[in-house]
Design goal:
Low-confidence stretches: 332-336
Order of helices and strands: HHEEHEHHHHEHHHHHHHEEEEHHEEEE
Largest sheet: 5 strands, mixed
Oligomer: single chain
Bound molecules: protoporphyrin IX containing FE, (3S,6S)-3,6-bis(2-methylpropyl)piperazine-2,5-dione
Length: 401
């Protein structure tokens, strides 16, 4: 029996501040039904881990509707078995080892170049003046695209991201998303074709090779994986970066220690991802009837894992509602380490870009700390977040010397 809902994930209150409802969901509505989208929201760490850990029962089939219409073919998360393993390792090759050594200096150059004009001004909006531009430029480097096309790529990316992460797109908004997806196809297909025999290490060239797969991928299949990376590597970055600096500013003692001892930055980034997970939801579709906490769930049901709520489960994290960069360093409390957090997912489809993101975020945060001293909020700044599926600050207007 499902208890009548008191709080909806689609209410204004939840949209404004979801964190205040996490314990309610975990304790009162561990399997929370939302009629408007016919989906069950799961919020306890143990349940989320069990869902993501069983990809036979909890499949990624729902992405056929949520992602494929704008991705133009299957994304990595829709694949399984041998195909998934082979294609995931191709992507991994494009962001590790030799290739990592090529792209990290480019991230650094780009970050410095974007920051430069603001240094004299003493003011910057870390989301809109920096993070969003840095995020899309970094992805452009990974894919080996041309930086001069960054504005249109960023605009089209926004269109496909909004299709995938919205629950209430209007017809016009949906049409705009499809238009963006078509523009991306027109732009990318000739580039993909051109790189058929390229020996370069950019992700598009790598996806043409068939070292780990039995057959070569078609250009359309490569297009979908290119769009997958464009979205997956861009969307969470400005959010995580702004959340990191917001929570450091909110916790001045921790901020001061991070500034002094940069080794703490890694911990601060991981704790940010736990405390305010930029990817809040992970959807799955049931392949058979089952039950969670004695609540029957029918075959084909849509299950949405509430990553943010699971990451604040007191069964797994001591004082979960406290931003505490020292969790990992406190060896006695193994239960509270942020590395157990589910921000990059769990199981077969765990994020392939997790370690790259940590390197990228640490690098860029270090540059910001080196160049922007005495960081504080701009006098008129009011903090607000947006997004239910992916979530982050609307802006972060800062002053510095
Ligand atoms: C998967 C989050 C950065 C590429 C995922 C998933 C999450 C996630 C939660 C699991 C999806 C699921 O189980 O359905 C994040 C966050 C990032 C980040 C929070 C940054 C802070 C990146 C980057 C890349 C990337 C930089 C680029 C290479 C992917 C891909 C998948 C994925 C391809 C699908 C993996 C699979 O199906 O095996 N990511 N991601 N992500 N991510 Fe990331
Ligand atoms: C493209 C939602 C930003 C992924 C996605 C629908 C599949 C998969 C994720 C992440 C983050 C994006 N799911 N990346 O949650 O590739």
């Amino acid at each position: 029996m499902i208890i009548k809902n008191k709080v909806s994930v689609f209410s204004n209150e939840y949209n404004e501040n979801p964190y205040q409802f996490f314990s309610y969901f975990r304790n009162e509505q561990p399997v929370h039904y939302e009629e408007s989208i016919n989906a069950y929201f799961v919020s306890n760490y143990e349940d989320v881990q069990a869902v993501l850990g069983n990809d036979q029962l909890f499949t990624t089939k729902s992405l056929a509707k949520r992602a494929q219409p704008v991705m133009r073919d299957r994304v990595l998360a829709q694949m399984n078995g041998k195909e998934h393993k082979a294609k995931k390792s191709m992507i991994l090759k494009g962001i590790t080892g030799e290739r990592l050594e090529e792209i990290v200096p480019l991230f650094e150059e780009n970050a410095k170049e974007i920051l430069n004009p603001y240094l004299k001004k003493g003011k910057i909006d870390l989301v809109n003046d920096f993070g969003k531009i840095f995020a899309v430029q970094s992805t452009i480097e990974m894919l080996g695209l041309d930086k001069k096309d960054q504005n249109k790529i960023a605009e089209w990316h926004q269109g496909i991201a909004s299709f995938i992460t919205s629950f209430n797109q209007s017809k016009e908004e949906q049409e705009y998303s499809f238009w963006c997806s078509e523009q991306l196809e027109k732009y990318l297909l000739p580039i993909i074709e051109e790189r058929k025999n390229s020996r370069n290490l950019d992700l598009i060239s790598l996806l043409h090779r068939s070292e780990t797969t039995d057959t070569k991928m078609t250009s359309q299949e490569i297009l979908a994986l290119t769009l997958n990376i464009l979205l997956a590597a861009t969307e969470p970055v400005d959010k995580t970066l702004a959340l990191l600096f917001y929570h450091l500013l909110e916790n001045p003692d921790q901020f001061a220690n991070v500034e002094k001892d940069r080794k703490l930055l890694k911990n601060a980034i991981r704790e940010t991802l736990r405390y305010k997970s930029p990817v809040q939801f992970i959807p799955r579709q049931l392949s058979d009837n089952t039950e969670i906490r004695n609540i029957p769930l029918p075959k084909d049901a849509l299950i949405i894992c509430m990553i943010g709520a699971a990451n604040r489960d007191p069964e797994f994290f001591t004082e979960p509602d406290r931003f505490n960069i020292y969790r990992e360093l406190n060896h006695q409390k193994v239960f509270s380490t942020h590395s157990q957090n589910l921000s990059f997912g769990y199981g077969t489809h765990t994020c392939v870009g997790a370690s790259l993101s940590l390197i990228q975020l640490e690098l860029v945060a270090n540059i910001i700390l080196d160049k922007l001293k005495n960081l504080e909020y701009d006098k008129n700044f009011v903090y607000a977040e947006h997004g239910l599926y992916t979530r982050g600050p609307k802006s972060l207007e800062l002053e510095f010397r």
